[in-house]
Amino acid sequence: MKKLIDQMTAQLEAAFAAAGYDTRYAKVTLSNRPDLCEYQCNGALSAAKEYHKAPAMIAKEVAEKCQGNPAFESVETAGPGFINIKLGASFLKDYLNEMAENEKLGVEECEKPETVLIDFGGANVAKPLHVGHLRSAIIGESVKRICRYKGNKVIGDVHLGDWGLQMGLIITELRVRQPDLVYFDESYEGEYPAKAPFTISELEEIYPCANAKSKEDEAFREEAKNATFELQNGRRGYLALWNHILNVSVTDLKRNYDNLNVTFDLWKKESDAQPYIPDMVKYLKDEGYAHISQGALVVDVAEPDDTKEIPPCMILKSDGATLYNTTDLATLVERRKLFDPDRIIYVVDKRQGLYFEQVFRCARKTKLVKDGIRLDFLGFGTMNGKDGKPFKTRDGGVMRLEHLMRDINEAVYVRMMENKTVSEEEARATSRVIGLAALKYGDLSNAAVKDYIFDVDRFTSFEGNTGPYIQYTIVRIQSILKKYEALPESERPASAIREACSKSERDLALQLCKFNEMMDSAYEELAPHKICSYIYELSDAFNSFYHEIRILAEEDTVKRAGYIALLRLTVRALETGIELLGFAAPERM
Ligand code: ARG
User: Fold this and answer.
1) Tens digit of pLDDT for each residue in 280-290?
2) Which protein residue has the closest C-alpha to ligand 1 atom 2?
3) Whose CA is closest to atom 5 on ligand 1?
4) Are 18 and 10 in contact (CB under 8 A)?
């Protein structure tokens, strides 16, 4: 469906043309003085130069051509040459009714749908999921849904970190603790046990312990490095252990991501790219892209007009070891082969920005990726505590995601029990639905690149710019709709949305009709926070309407049915919004 603002522009183009002016001056924008008008056009000011005429004169002539056009309630000139526009009430209601009939509320799918791969989550195997990975999961999930809504073929890949030093550390620590395990016996040739020699809680304790040891104990660290090297070179017993670590860890990760309502189409991992490395390295050498610098194999990626120094992209260390870069480049090769994506979006901590710049440049320069592919780095900021420092537990440790969610749900539960509207049992279940909204909305309502302060009290509040407030508004509308549906059919005549007859109703209508425009910019800019602001303003507009107008008590049944149609559209816009953010509303709260 054509955006309202574009339809307005088309009307103004006709008026500019009729008055003898070029249509390129007819662009309509949202009013920046909502007290004076709803939309505006400032084109007369720029046209003045070309036509050597006073802008106010041009504005007046254009405005005259708009008189009598039902698309407008009024078109007035103001100041030096502004054109102030108010929409025609019947035009507005027609727009809303068309939107209501449209499956996607007027949002058009991309003309050329793309295969979009989203690299998000990025958890590291064997390390418990902590809040550092929370943002990637929450933002990535929403971006995935937004890209899909626009009609693209979208593939979400968790891209687990499973090939680094953490594996060597765990293997080495296990060896210290259980030296007799068959995995360490190099002469062993039989099958390895199917059951892991550790549980998830043991695993979670082993890693931090080994990590701490490696910082103090040089020999331990060397041994861990060596174990990593041996694993990566295919030592059987270590591969078997790695498999156990992976399985135990992935089971736990899946449970955690499920609780977050985050899903992946692919559970690929860094190790999956390893088979592509030898050929890739050979290619980079043979084609002359890579050269040796201080013993290491590198590709220069600096460009003449760089304003800051972009160091070369390292492919192999001087000892021949591969790096994070090598894996990411090989993953690009793998993705091209398996999925041939047109676009890849990486949702990663913004501190990895320079790193990805190197990887992207290297991939393009060496043609590891196809021409014209879009590689986007969607870098996000840090979630901080109230002290402005990265969020920690009370005793200063790394906060585990599970515990964070438990704390939020508890806060919501306490709030619900204060109101005492539902049973304890229902409050428990509902608090999980609300807690998730509090957490996700609290994150997504900020532009991703910004740091933000995690504030349980604010995030879980039922008022203000919060997830629970949006949910509350949805629950309120649904409950009105339910009461209405329960009325006898004879009292429910058919009616579409009618012309607004109060300011609050008109404000609600005006906010609703911006849905497709908002969605397109959320998609263009990969910006879930635009959805948040929109549904927040929509909720406010609805609640003002609700407080002013008696909906169910309206005696004119046709008028009442018109209100109901407006409510149905409102709740669809809100529900679509939260669905795209990755959470749902409860039945009651
Ligand atoms: N595992 C990485 C980390 O914890 C994030 C992975 C991001 N994705 C990628 N393709 N490098 O920092």
Assistant:
1) 999 999 999 99
2) 122
3) 122
4) no
